Amino acid sequence: MAINLISNGQEDWLSTLNSDLSQIGDKVSSTTVPITAINGCSVNGSTVVYQIGSHRLAITTGSVSIGSALSANNKSIDFGRLASDTDIGQGVAWSQVTNWAVGGVITRSGTTLTLTEENYGGDVNRGTYFNFMLVRSY
């Protein structure tokens, strides 16, 4: 940044500073990767991957409506697919179902996104709606 170009008494120091700050935007780009729903689920969400210099920040947000009852044994369902080159890490899911909170974790195996919920004694059935968020920096 050309702060050294700002001299004592310079009247237009703010525009000099702002013109150099505008260069920051040239180093940031983003790509949006959609999530494809599977197993009868409905998914509204995507991953945005920000390229900041040589670093990447992937933020996945959205919601999923369960298309079928989760397995009674493991309370888990595959609900979506991402492009194979999208690195999203792990994240959390949450819902409010008939006055009790449901939490869970979202994991990725290959291209498949899986919701594993922990509902502490209740049942999560077809149509239960979860919000989710995953963040990964690499």
What is this structure's SSE topology?
Layout: H1 13-21, E1 28-34, E2 36-37, E3 42-52, E4 55-65, E5 76-81, E6 91-97, E7 100-109, E8 112-118, E9 129-137
Antiparallel strand pairs: 1-3, 2-5, 3-4, 4-9, 5-8, 6-7, 6-9, 7-8
Protein traits:
138 residues, mainly beta, Immunoglobulin-like, 1 helix, 9 strands
Short description:
The protein has 138 residues and is mostly beta strands. The chain has a single domain, classed as Immunoglobulin-like, CATH 2.60.40. Helix content is 7%, strand content 51%.
Structure characterization notes:
By secondary structure, the protein is mainly β. The chain has one domain: Immunoglobulin-like. The protein is 7% helix and 51% strand. The chain contains one helix and nine strands; from the N terminus they run αβββββββββ. It has a nine-stranded antiparallel β-sheet, with no helix packed on it. The protein is elongated.
